[in-house]
Amino acid sequence: MRDISSNVRLSVTEPADLVFSVAVAFTNTIESETLTVTLDGSPLDASAIVELTDAHGTRLHRVTAPTGVLEVAYSATVSGSTPLDAESMDHVEYLRPSRYCDSDRLANVAWSHLGPKQGWDLVEGARRWALENIVYAPGSTDPVDGALETYLSREGVCRDSSHLIIAFLRARGIPARLVSAYAPGLLPMDFHAVVEVLMDGAWFVIDGTGLASRPALVRIATGRDAADTAFLTIVSGRADLLTMEVSAITREPLPYDDGRQQVRIG
Amino acid sequence: MRDISSNVRLSVTEPADLVFSVAVAFTNTIESETLTVTLDGSPLDASAIVELTDAHGTRLHRVTAPTGVLEVAYSATVSGSTPLDAESMDHVEYLRPSRYCDSDRLANVAWSHLGPKQGWDLVEGARRWALENIVYAPGSTDPVDGALETYLSREGVCRDSSHLIIAFLRARGIPARLVSAYAPGLLPMDFHAVVEVLMDGAWFVIDGTGLASRPALVRIATGRDAADTAFLTIVSGRADLLTMEVSAITREPLPYDDGRQQVRIG
Amino acid sequence: MRDISSNVRLSVTEPADLVFSVAVAFTNTIESETLTVTLDGSPLDASAIVELTDAHGTRLHRVTAPTGVLEVAYSATVSGSTPLDAESMDHVEYLRPSRYCDSDRLANVAWSHLGPKQGWDLVEGARRWALENIVYAPGSTDPVDGALETYLSREGVCRDSSHLIIAFLRARGIPARLVSAYAPGLLPMDFHAVVEVLMDGAWFVIDGTGLASRPALVRIATGRDAADTAFLTIVSGRADLLTMEVSAITREPLPYDDGRQQVRIG
Amino acid sequence: MRDISSNVRLSVTEPADLVFSVAVAFTNTIESETLTVTLDGSPLDASAIVELTDAHGTRLHRVTAPTGVLEVAYSATVSGSTPLDAESMDHVEYLRPSRYCDSDRLANVAWSHLGPKQGWDLVEGARRWALENIVYAPGSTDPVDGALETYLSREGVCRDSSHLIIAFLRARGIPARLVSAYAPGLLPMDFHAVVEVLMDGAWFVIDGTGLASRPALVRIATGRDAADTAFLTIVSGRADLLTMEVSAITREPLPYDDGRQQVRIG
């Protein structure tokens, strides 16, 4: 049983069309859940909030916001989850280069660093390369940076390490994608980003930062890269982030994770 | 009634896993259709060919090829088509930056060139900007080039003009995507790439090159950019293109197209 | 008569080879001048400091520093200056693309924004474009960013606006280069960077930020871009900036500068 | 004794300002030399040709050309040469990143591939890395590509391998620069580009392609990268290359060169 919540406050200075990706995916068994959206402290009209379902059970909330201070508070209790099946198109779709996982540009680089490794050795090679070479440095990267920029600067956060691992794996023929998640035990607590790899006919999760316990993760969004999973997308108008708080607690002891077992998340 | 065909010959020098996107989409009314795959002149075993269905009725053929000369011959007769509906996620998904349509990097540039235009004026502005500024130059671009590179070099083919228009439109809030198509009347004849924009609740097609008659187009693949629609993707192994032929004929007179009417394709 | 000074303090954590560009150029009439280099408060051995003369009277101080806190304090009083002559090679050298002024990539962009303008109209056009389009935003740029990145992000500091103006002008056939300077009256006070353009056989200075009074500027370094003029270059070893202070005062009233007169600096 | 010549023919379609770098440097002992410039077969007025001297004895010829077919024919006989001395500023200037040798972006990459190597081991490591990893592929690169693009694509010509070696060495603290040269014995014959490295107080030449005999090289231009050494720069107007021929013959046997001895050129 895991209890998660997030609170995002924005200053909307021009009427804005916003997409939030904070609700847990439909792959989770949701015991209870609340989503509250207020503007300057008063509830926003329900018609201004639309829930959309993206691929793989991802849920988005599209909010049409007038100017003011917008607050999106979400909480849920999750009792379990079902792993996503590997669909036949996954084998093709998640080999393609994407905006922040430019595996086509990094094809030779992936070969240089991972050599002729195959299968799980290759996956472990990519994970270790990121762990050993990418310095965890909040604030070092720009939203427009992708795997190439991370490869050159060797700095970043979970999003950046994940993008680089995904690009390396796709370049070497292993389908890989990004998953945003609530991560009990994560320090500092934040929305987390991890990698899913398609091996032996199933999706397994790996953590490019080594900071989270994977069995405790609660899936939010699943996609090609951060373009599909960002907790906030400003479609139009203007809004500036004021504060953000994330909480994720597991009622059971946090499962120990050495990062190398094969783990699936729901 | 349109008769289309394509023939792709490859030299496979290491056993290869290949994905072809040459069959017309399920949005078309297909009167008859043949797909023949041979290796060194003999039919390839049927088990080596798998048809996959991607989003929006796109059909892919994944081929496991031993070494030799691989030939993929496709032909179809299409009597009509049904336009794709705009789904609710389309409004979000096709605003996201993608590998070759880096709308996030080009946000300021789009504003510089298109200014405060809105709606159809904005769409027409983007189309005209590409027509007037991008020189049609086969061989000028690299497969790893995206909209930014095309914007800087001002050269490219249908793929490149389309990527730039899509990036401009997404940056300005209009969902846009890439469609590969057979294009009766196209000179020189080749696989064509056009743009679909989501306006007034429906997907309309625009042609960044002005070379095709849009009402005659036959849809093949639909996606974020060329990563989703390339006629050939080499997943693993090694294969070099030897020859490629494309044919597309309409039995009726080719519809006149000034490029500016609102046209939907199936 | 202008009194200028700067104080740079670094934490040297691995023995380092450092190059400082803080002394005023030989084009200035220097009434008095002091340079003091200390390590952990004690004067550094004179043999560890070498003065080098770069092109155009630029003076560099190369310092071999052991670990510790290194402090470089410079002050000078300048009574006048002689403008640099335009040398024949300047007409060729300062048209070439350079690391941070990638005029070759920006050739089409320069044409888009400046059109067929020529001569001083072109110079004024480039200056105005930067003033109107680049938001002054300390901390927004990375040391590896050049004119292209500034063009895309539309944010930066004096270095970035100057790089973009230089790239635009070179792309349109006007030799241009970067000058670092002490700038009396600058707010906030800092090392400043301005552009020199070669027009009518002489070098004139323009300010892409509009923040400085050009007649009061005191030249430090002159070069192709910030690779030649940075106040600190870490050649080897490791050093982190602790504090930096810059002061520049003119004893006469600060000359009014509307940014558009033709001004030469010495 | 070496006999070299080159012939460049251009179609000038708009009056053009051109800079040629085809004459051998003043570091060579020139026994005889001719430079003939004709337009549509008639000699161009002498006033339209200006010889400029760049750094390090480089000679440029700036030509003001009306429209027509411009032919620049150069030949020389060289009996010997004097190596260039290492000047004190060379130690700083040739460590700086430049347009096509973006050593700042490639700092981590250089460390990944060359590790803690120092001195001549480092130089040999960079040369071998380029020899083993960059495929010689005429036509694969674009004039705007620099070391980063070559690093990613692993393809290029002498210019590209040299840029990458220079970037790697500068990133690791060894001053390095580009030299264009006539190269007796080169196959296919063309203008050649090699690297000079500053070691033990002197400039030594290394060849990133392994195609030339270094002792036989005849220096043309010396600079930071191809921005300083290109055989043709179109400053303004419009001109398209029609044909180019290069010849370089040594009257003595071509010195054997295994690529690893320490060689200086004049």
Automatic annotation (TrEMBL), chains A, B, C, D:
InterPro entries, alphabetically? Papain-like_cys_pep_sf, Transglutaminase-like
Which SUPFAM superfamilies does the annotation name? Cysteine proteinases
SMART domains reported for this sequence: TGc
Pfam families with a match to the protein in the record: Transglut_core (PF01841)
Ranges for domain Transglutaminase-like come to: 150-210
Origin: domain of life: Bacteria
Please identify the protein, giving its name as recorded.
Transglutaminase family protein
State the species of origin. Answer: Nocardioides cavernaquae
The taxonomic lineage of its organism, from the top, reads: Bacteria, Bacillati, Actinomycetota, Actinomycetes, Propionibacteriales
